[in-house]
Each structure stands twice: as C-alpha cells, then as structure tokens.
Design goal:
Blueprint (H helix, E strand, L loop, with lengths): L15 H50 L9 E9 L2 E8 L10 E10 L2 E10 L1
Antiparallel strand pairs: 1-2, 2-3, 3-4
Length: 126
C-alpha cells in the first residue's frame, strides 16, 4: 500500500534553492547576534577591570590618609604594589609653595585587560 500525494495547481513545497537562501540569511543573522553578544561580554570584562582598579586606587589613597604624608618626599613612592594583577603606584607632590603642608597625591593603577595595557588615575589634595 503506497500513499501517493497529489498536488493541486499552485500547491508545491519548498525548492532546494529557497531552503539554501533561507539558511544563508539565518546564518548571517546568527553571526550578527553572536558578534553582538561577544562585544557585550568584552565590554563587561573591561568594566569589571575598571571597577576593580578604581576600588584599589581608592583603597591606596585611603591608606595614605592614615600616614604622615607631609613628611614624605615628593615624587613616585616606591615600591609599587601589585595586587591581583593590578599595579598601584603613588605620586606625591607639593603643588603650592605658600602651603608646603598641602600635598597633591595621585594614585595610578595599571593592568593588562582584554584590550591590552590599560590604566586609571585618581588624585586628591591632603
């Protein structure tokens, strides 16, 4: 017993060409969506690194608030600290000759992120 399908006029299935074109269009759309999500993940990683660097920089400046910064000499304070892949460097400067007790403190974080070398700086006056 065989089942035979009969087609009426105008009632046909998809051709091979139509299926190939649909597959190509679907592949193009899926590639675009994949690149979009890859860029979102990359931006998220970059923001995570910047947030961590900002947190470590603030921590470094707060640590200096508890020290006698006035007696520290101007220039880069050594040694630099490396914390979880981030390197923290501190610069102390006397910006005003009239106020030698005022110190300009700059904390600089450097690290290697998803886009290569990156850095962030914060500064304040004590």
């Amino acid at each position: 017993m065989s089942i035979r399908r009969t087609f009426r006029k105008g009632e046909t299935g998809f051709t091979l060409l139509e299926i190939v074109i649909a597959a190509v269009i679907l592949a193009i759309v899926m590639t675009g969506i994949a690149f979009f999500f890859m860029n979102i993940i990359k931006m998220s990683d970059r923001m995570d690194d910047q947030t961590k660097a900002l947190e470590l920089c603030r921590e470094g400046i707060e640590k200096l608030r508890t020290m006698d910064v006035i007696s520290m000499s101007d220039g880069w304070q050594t040694p630099s600290e490396t914390i979880q892949g981030f390197t923290r460097s501190v610069w102390i400067d006397t910006p005003y000759a009239l106020y030698p007790e005022a110190k300009h403190v700059r904390c600089r974080m450097t690290w290697t992120g998803v886009d290569g070398a990156d850095s962030l700086s914060l500064s304040t006056i004590f």
